[in-house]
Amino acid sequence: MKSDARVVVIGGGVVGASVLYHLTKAGWKDALLIERGELTCGSTWHAAGGMHTLNGDPNVARLQQYTINLYKELEKISGQSCGLHMPGGIMLAGTRERFDWLKMAKARGRYLGMELELISADEAARVFPIIDKKHFVGALLDPIEGHVDPYGVTHAYAKAAQIGGAQVVRHTRVTDLKARGDGSWDVITEAGNVHAEHVVNAGGLWAREVGRMVGLELPILAMQHQYLITEDLPALKGQKELLTCIDFEGEIYTRQERGGVLLGTYERAGVPWSPLQTPWDFTQSLLPEDLDRIAPSLEVGFRHFPALAEAGIRKVVNGPFTFAPDGNPLVGPVRGLRNFWVACGVMAGFSQGGGVGLTLSQWMVEGDPGADVWGMDVARYGDWATLPYTNAKVRENYSRRFRIRFPNEELSAARPLRTTPVYERLQAEHAVFGDYCGLEHALWFAPSAAEATEDITFHRSNAHPHVAAECQAVREAVGLLEISNYGKFEVTGPGTKEWLSYVMANRVPKVGRIALTPMLNERGKLIGDFTLCRLAAERVFLICTYAAQEHYRRWFERHAPPPGVTVRPCAMEYVGLSLAGPRSRSLLQGLTREDLSSAAFPFLSFRRLDVGMIPALVGRISFTGDLGYEIWVTSEYQRALYDLLVGAGAEQGLKLLGGRALNTLRIEKSFGTWAREYRPIYGPYEAGLGRFVDLEKGDFVGRAAALEERDSGGALRLVSFTVDASDADASGDEPVWHDGKVVGWVTSGAYGHSVRQSLALGYIPAALAGEASGFEIEIIGERRKALRQSAAVFDPDGSRMRA
Ligand SMILES: Cc1cc2nc3c(=O)[nH]c(=O)nc-3n(C[C@H](O)[C@H](O)[C@H](O)COP(=O)(O)OP(=O)(O)OC[C@H]3O[C@@H](n4cnc5c(N)ncnc54)[C@H](O)[C@@H]3O)c2cc1C
């Protein structure tokens, strides 16, 4: 084994091998993979090898497409067969709702370029003859599905990487990692040390243990997973290979395995494996089979696939593989550790392994993943994702693998975990809560405890009239919203202004003022949106998206401030309440000696005020687009502030509102939000944020690319639509049609109660941005007429928020 390498990849499962191949392809040929056993000896060797293109996150779906399309190239380069079988796949729906879900999946597939086809139960039985069609209402066909040989794929990656210059060392365990002062690593192994500039943790079943070598507790848990293989089925003899299949109601997947069928299931009472520590002596091993545990799924399976009930079972496999709490991979650089990268938690190595390798290699070599990888960025989890939290969420996710996730559905595991001081008060007002980064926040308020449960549906739910009333209160009187679930930073010290001016695209505001600003990467794409509130010459309070806080912290490490400037995350230190609506000023004025008139405290002011007896930071701004104030206090004051505002608000018609109403109100104003309208695939001019980019202020990250985008106009445009919907609104990821062709996609949608119209925001080609008509948005399989609006549908000139 060599003693120096540019990069050491720890782990020779399908993921580590893919990372190695992609690194050499991207030009890092001095790459070394270290594997403690044989390649594939972790979770890879016993995988069923199935692959699918569908994923809840379209950006992850794109990477899955990439992976599947890669195998032929890989075979050619390596000369190693991947055992590629591409018979196509069928997804069976046993209920109307599931069929609706498939219609939505097909719709989403349209702008991903997927050729999906909806078929009836009769047709399903024709193309997939082993089912009893009476259990199904229809199905979706996907020609790009199949299965591979896990051994073949992993060795093909490794061989292709070796051809590209990489080295693979087997039977050598990495026992420790020691950081050097210059950011490089000493990789300590059983066979000596390697000095490496970069280290990749692709440790699969042992990724947690490798993480612990550097003080990192990754939110990963392995689950036991079982599949069985039947004896040969006479019906399959001489026939072309069966489609791969997912039976959602049975929670079963199948594919042909020689003359028989492989049938696997994600049982509801899934069992974690080695929840605290993965044993090092588990090599090319399996777990004892436990057919009783999957018996309920098998019973359904044998009813749905009668031919399988008659075939004997040839083999049962029970093996562990790892998951992150949301089931998507954990990829990227780790904050606080220089040159340390992860590629783990990959639960579908044969659909996702190629995309993970591509992304990580681009990130390492180019400094940027090259695509929108938010859905699998390791930075989406913070300290709150402890091991017990991960355990609860992974078990929940595993049990729901084949269940529908409705757009208004909140999951219950690991809750309540984090609550703010006003939680019980909101609960007493019958709040229906949602979970955001483990933090409870009110979604809407029911009139009574008995009604405080939301029906989960693709259509408008029982929350609809209550959300309408909350919106009405904001537009006509005053609403009170808890806003603690925003991310916050405090930047202080000499040089604060200059550093912020360099990392943000807009000008830093004057003292006492607020500025909205995008944050761009070097490619000029959106990687954040911030509210900068300048309290003093050298003290700026930053408000942002809480879920992205770790991602921002990592970025702020990369573009580190000069000595003397401190960047302090303080999200949960400052909790907040917001007042919005035409009566918000008179309400707040009654509680403070400060003059709140528009002349004295205009729109976008930010100051330290006393509200009653409570010291607060108050900004004159509201995401509702109405006159409003955001009031931030340290947490010990939040209950007193709440009581004060609610007490004083009674005579102003104050009503509590939740996140659902806020979403509607911001869409009425065409205000975008991070992870929906603002993502790293869009530029600021495309996203309508050009007015918040100050190209005149001097250099800043992404300036050259932003300038280019301003001059070219960019390829896309964020636009708003009114939609001719009936009882279901767009919620995101629906295709936008124009003149019979899919031209774009929806990023957010809701019913606009103030304007009594269904609304959607979405991206279309810039060339079409001048068109008003000819658009349609596909909602649950039906194309609905949509009119592009040239301005926000509510208060287009913004006079209300400036009043
Ligand atoms: C029963 C079953 C069926 C499955 N079916 C499918 C399927 O149909 N389709 C699909 O896409 N996925 C399937 N999977 C999941 C798939 O197996 C995983 O997604 C994939 O194997 C993950 O690969 P990995 O490289 O991340 O992890 P692993 O395969 O666990 O690889 C990690 C490697 O790192 C090595 N390692 C760890 N620590 C060290 C160290 N300190 N020093 C040196 N080496 C180290 C290990 O020895 C191991 O070889 C299935 C899994 C199971 C259990």
Tell me about this structure.
The protein is an alpha+beta fold and 803 residues long. It is built from 19 helices and 38 strands. The strands form seven sheets. Strands 4, 5, 6, 12, 13, 14, 15, 16 and 17 form a nine-stranded mixed sheet that branches. Strands 1, 2, 8, 9, 10, 11, 18 and 19 form an eight-stranded mixed sheet that branches. The mean pLDDT is 96. Bound molecules: flavin-adenine dinucleotide. The site of flavin-adenine dinucleotide (FAD) has 42 residues, from helix 1, strand 3, strand 12, strand 17 and helix 9.
Topology:
Layout: E1 4-10, H1 14-25, E2 31-34, E3 50-51, H2 58-78, E4 89-93, H3 96-111, E5 117-120, H4 121-127, E6 138-142, E7 146-147, H5 150-163, E8 167-169, E9 174-179, E10 185-189, E11 192-201, H6 207-212, E12 221-230, E13 244-247, E14 252-257, E15 260-265, E16 272-273, H7 291-304, H8 306-310, E17 313-323, E18 330-333, E19 340-344, H9 349-366, H10 387-399, H11 423-428, E20 431-436, E21 439-445, H12 464-476, E22 478-482, E23 486-492, H13 496-503, E24 514-520, E25 526-536, E26 539-545, H14 549-558, E27 566-569, E28 574-580, H15 584-589, E29 606-611, E30 614-619, E31 628-634, H16 638-649, E32 654-656, H17 659-668, H18 703-712, E33 716-723, E34 735-738, E35 741-752, E36 757-765, E37 775-779, E38 782-789, H19 799-802
Parallel strand pairs: 1-2, 1-11, 2-8, 4-13, 11-19, 22-32
Antiparallel strand pairs: 3-7, 4-6, 5-6, 9-10, 10-11, 12-15, 12-16, 12-17, 13-14, 14-15, 18-19, 20-21, 22-28, 23-26, 23-27, 24-25, 25-26, 28-31, 29-30, 30-31, 33-36, 33-38, 34-35, 34-37, 35-36, 37-38
Helix pairs in contact: 1-5, 1-9, 2-5, 2-9, 12-17
The structure holds flavin-adenine dinucleotide.
Flavin-adenine dinucleotide binds at residues 10-16, 34-37, 41-44, 46-51, 173-174, 202-206, 210, 225, 227, 317, 319-321, 344, 346-351.
